[in-house]
Amino acid sequence: MAAKSKRTTYEEIYRRHIRLYRELNDLHIFATRTSPLLKAAADEHKGEFIDPDEDIELSVPGKHGRPGIARRNSTELSALLKRFANEELYANLLVTAVSRFEFYLADVLGEFLRRDPEKLLRGPKGGDSGRPVPLQMVVDADDLEDLYEGLIEQRIQSIFYAEPKEYCAYFNTISELEIPEKSFEQFFEIKATRDLIVHNSLLVNELYRKKAGALARGELGDRLKVKEDYFETCLSAMKKLSGTIEKRTQEKHGKKGKP
Fold it and tell me: Where are the domains of the chain?
């Protein structure tokens, strides 16, 4: 059997839930403290009493590892800072927030799998997983516990590339928490937006429309915006889903009251 924590299932899930809340709150605190500073700096450069065509030399990393120089005039620098203050700061922090939430979900799945490794045999729909164990993984494992860890990591990595409905089904198959698919829908739109930030400059494509479903925020070719209000909505949605998972775990595995 894989190593088990001395804490109860609920205690472990609750600890992950609270850690996630703190991480998401930290991102929001950072955003709300940073945006006003960027806006103030943008206004300062906009009002600089210099020739608008005169470039300001800014130190940046060079391609060979040595310091380089980037040149921007005061108008360009002001626009850059304003753009980040109003939108790109939140877009970049949303990427981080989604990564932290995906780690949380993977950690929760891993906890359930470590407590009952036989669940590795289950596929997304509850039947046989149909996945053979690579012989190299068996040979390289130090012991059965090490093999379980490798299989758990492999399974979790593969499921995160699955279709949203398949991922939701697998999460419920392993956790047995019976989280309604509707509870995941807003996160799937958020995740699809994150993918557009990273891979498509926030331009809506077919993949986004497919992943976001009825909650898609634009038509093909539209450029989505990630501003403060959407960023805060995303943090709330991830907290809500984490809270649902924590509550269902408490109902199924925990005692009344928190540890």
Answer: 9-45+86-253
